[in-house]
Structures are given as structure tokens and as C-alpha cells.
Amino acid sequence: MAWFDEAVFYHIYPLGLLGCPHENSYGEPVHRLTDLAGWVEYIADMGFTGIYIGPLFESEGHGYETTDYKKLDSRLGTNEDLKAFVADCHKRGIRVILDGVFNHTGRNFFAFRDIREHRESSRYLGWYSGVNLGGNNSFNDGFSYDNWGGYDLLVRLNQKNPEVQDYIADVIRFWVSEFDIDGLRLDAADVLDFDFMQMLARVGSEVKPDFYLMGEVIHGEYIRWERDAHLHAVTNYHLHKALYSGHNDHNYFEIAHTVKRLYDMGGGDPLGLRLYNFSDNHDVERIVSRLSNRAHFRPLHILLYTLPGVPSMYYGSEFGIEGKKGGGDDWPIRPALSLKDCLADDDKRPFRELIKALCHIRTSHPCLSYGSYEQLLLTNRQYAFIRRSAEGLAVVAVNNDDSPAQVNINVPAGRYKALIDGITVDASGGNLSYTLPPSGGDIFVPEDDGGSREVDIVPPSEIKPVQPAPAVQQTQEPAPKVQQSQESAPAQKTPEQKPGPATDGQSDIQKNAREIKKEPSQSEKTPEPVPVPSSKSYEEMSVEELQSAILQKMAKNGPVTDDMKRSVYDNVWHDSLLNWVKSFN
């Protein structure tokens, strides 16, 4: 167990939050980072215990085309500003992790500039991957090189080069000695070399015994990055997708199945596979913009803060702000915000109060960090589970229906407190009977819970319900209440009954489980897989062949859904697919 096992993270994209110019003029430093002082005070009051902030270092534009790893981006200020920021966080009990962008650099990084200037005479030719002096690139340099994502602006480092490894190791040591950071989020970890990540893990344990390494992994069998790369955690994109689509489709089976698969991947141990959970971040659309019904913000975030893994909140989303990508532009989901204006907006208050309550509930009940996970109830519209540890237990129940739902859940006998609604429920007979509000949920702990830590929690009476978006048109009639709910359907299979009038003999659960099965549009349909050649190594395969190989491996582990197929075909990056196919046992 370490500090990061019970952390609650707040994620800041500083170039956006602080309203920096989108292009770096490399002029005199502008001390915008000092404006985060008020945010740090607010973040601490909300109950967050960790901040993930980045990218921070000198770059050309969005921050991931680094030009100097040892200098704070001049649009944000100076190294002294960053040192003061981390010190302020530590004073308030908040740990700080930064973006480690080590897969690639910008074109103005000193080593790449040297290649452009001296070509075959440059001592840094071996620092980058795939340099070919007989080729060319989109900048017409007269040579080609490997990049990230098809963007020549992002020049891929040769991570197997000992000089590159030594340089990056020195960068990490510098960040710890100069700024006293507590860990890193490794950008593009799904394409990083595994030996390189093992080196980063060795350096991390050298600089601080509890130095946190979390990898950005979108696709693949997550356990491999923790087992073979020695990272502490990975970003949980599987759950991210399930959270919003499971609510939009009134399909808690998708969420429960995702949770069970990841929990089993970790050997049924809550720390067997450490996960960094989120509802949105700087690369995906804001969660309120993703939801068909913004009232689902409440049950979705109850799940985020209680399922296995550490929760993270992307700046501003606790105010329920919207944000969609536009024409490939990520800046709309990375806006400048005024904390004063956000706090003064009454429409944003219900979102913020819910997140504040959930932060304090999470940190005051260790079982939500360390406890085992067991599913207790599952229908399309209701879902309940228990987290249990030596320190105590918590029962979580959520409802994505537009109507109240009466649930009956088998629990250890006793009296329970509903931490959000603030009432006591008698379950002395081992049955917790409770009416969940529309688009609601709660977290129940024993009334005499000795595992709770004394933390001030937002009074339940002040947590207002989040209203549905007025523009959303409901396509289904509200579901009936669930009167008896111990007989939950299996998590592996969503009911496929065709919609229609319920027969007299149907139970309320069967009525509630009916869902309209939509046919995918032409754009959603996935292509047929190409044959996987037995004569080629994975490294030699094309993108299409790797996609087919991944689908074959998935099929050996169980049914491959259309969503799973689409996630494979959406990934068109060879290096990412290569790591993905190798991640299967």
C-alpha cells in the first residue's frame, strides 16, 4: 500500500486552464502558473489529495512537442514558479505528478536541431528512431524519421539508445531534486519500449521510494504494463467508455462486465491491477457533453469514486462544463476558466457539491481504496456492489432510470447510513431495501462503521439533484420500479428481449430489462478482418493484419462485441497495435 493507492486526483492541463497562447513565442516568461494558488486552495478544500498537471515544459504549441525538458514553458513562468507551486501543494497535503513526455520531442529540441544542421556529422543521429538521410518529411528537411501518430512535429526518440536513456533518467532526477515531484504520468505508454519503461521504474524507485509511475494506455491487456513494464497503474480507458455509454444506453451490464473483466485480470485483488479512473480528460470530450441525460452525472460519478481504481477529476468537469472537439481541435476541451466565476454560478453548484462529497467519502472510507469487489445486483438500469476490507465495508447502489427504483439487496445484517441522502436504513434482516431516486444512487456504510475516518463531508441536504439537459429528447418510456432485485442477471450478457408489452407473467425486473437493440449505422459497422499470415512476425505485419491478430486473441478470451471490434479498428497506429497484440497471455 502506498499514498497513490488511496489518492483522489485533480487533473490540470495548465496551458488551457491559464489561457496561454496556443503557440509559443519563446519570449520573456509570463508568470501565469502563480495564478494556480487559488486553485490549489480550492482543490484541497474539495478533498483532492493529488494533482496531475501537465504538460509543463518548454514546447512549441500544445505542450507535447517538448523543446526543453529542464525549463518551465515560458508561457507559464519560470522554474521558480513551478517549485513554489509544488511546495504549496505539499503544504496542503497534496501530491503532484507531472506529464513525462518521453516517446518523442519537438523539432526544436537540441538533439534534433543538431541533426537538421549537421546531418551525417551530427552526434545525435542515434537519438531518434528511423532516421533516413536519403528520405524526406513534411517539413522538407531532406531526411525522414519515425514520428508519433503520423505527425512529423513529434519526433520519436530511440528509446533503446543508452545515451537517450541516460538523458531521460537525468531529467527525472532533475525534476525530483529541483521541484520535489511525486510521480509521473507517462505519455503514450502504449507505444513506449518496455525495457525503457523498466529503466524509468528503476530511476523512480531510486529518487523516491513511493515515486508513482502511471502510464497512458488506451488499448490492450492492461496487466502487462504493470507486470512487464513495472508501472504502478494505467489509465482506464475501458471503464471511461463504459461509464458514458452504459448510462446513455441504459445498460449497466456494459459497466459491470468491464469492471469484472479488469478485476479478474488483477487476480481478484483490488491492488492486483491498479487503475487510474476518469470520466473525461484533456484528450476526450467533457463528460456532460457525452451524456444524453446530464442527470446521469450523479450515478456515473458515484461509480467513478467507488469502483476499484483511483478516481481523477479533469479541471472544470466538477462544475459540469461542456466541451466538444471541433474539426480535430482539442482546445475546446481545454478552456481557460475563472475559478471565481465558476464558484459564483449557481447552475454549477450541484455538480461541484456532489464531487466534493464524493471526494471526502472516498478518503474517509479506506474500503473504497483497498476493499474487495463483489457484485450484488445487476439489471440494465440498477447496479449494486460491495467493497469490503479489514477497515470496513461500503455498499454502492445506482439507478440510471428516469423513475425511482425500489431495490432489495442482500447485505451483511445491520443498520446502514446512506452517506449522500443522509438517512439510516434498517437492514437487520440482511436485506437493504431502499428507493433510489431517478438518475441517482447512494453509498451505504454500517451505522457503527469503525473504518470511517473523521472528515467533514458536505451536508447531504446541500447536494442538489442534477437536472436533465432540456434539449435531450427521451426515446423510451420511463422504466417501471424494480420491486424485487436479488435475482440479478449475469454480467456477461445483456438481455436481448425484443421491446413490446409485458405479459402478465413477467416480473418487474424482466420488464425493466427490455432494451431496444439498435442496428449500427453504416459508419459504425466494422470491416471484415483480413487473414493473419503465419509466416510473419508481429513486427512485420501490417496494421490490418495486427488488427485481425488482436481480434483472434480476444476471441480466445470470450465473445467479441461490436464495441470491442470498433475499438480495434479505431486504432490505426502500428506501434500501439504491436504492444496490444503482445499484451495477451
Describe this structure in words.
This protein has helices at 14-17, 37-46, 79-91, 110-118, 162-179, 194-207, 223-227, 237-248, 252-265, 287-290, 297-304, 339-344, 349-364, 367-370, 508-513, 543-557, 562-570, 574-582; strands at residues 9-12, 50-53, 57-59, 66-72, 95-100, 104-105, 147-148, 151-156, 183-186, 212-215, 233-235, 275-278, 310-314, 372-378, 382-389, 392-399, 405-410, 414-418, 424-427, 431-436, 440-446. β7 (147-148) and β8 (151-156) form a beta hairpin. It starts with 8 loop residues before the first strand and ends with a helix. It is an alpha/beta fold and 585 residues long. It is 30% helix and 18% strand. The chain has 18 helices and 21 strands. α5 packs parallel to α6, α11 (297-304) runs parallel beside α13 and α16 runs parallel beside α18 (574-582). It has an eight-stranded parallel barrel with strand order 1-2-5-9-10-11-12-13. It folds into four domains: 3-104 and 158-361, Glycosidases (TIM Barrel, Alpha-Beta Barrel); 105-157, Alpha-Beta Complex (Oligo-1,6-glucosidase, domain 2); 371-513, Golgi alpha-mannosidase II (Immunoglobulin-like, Sandwich); 538-582, no CATH class.
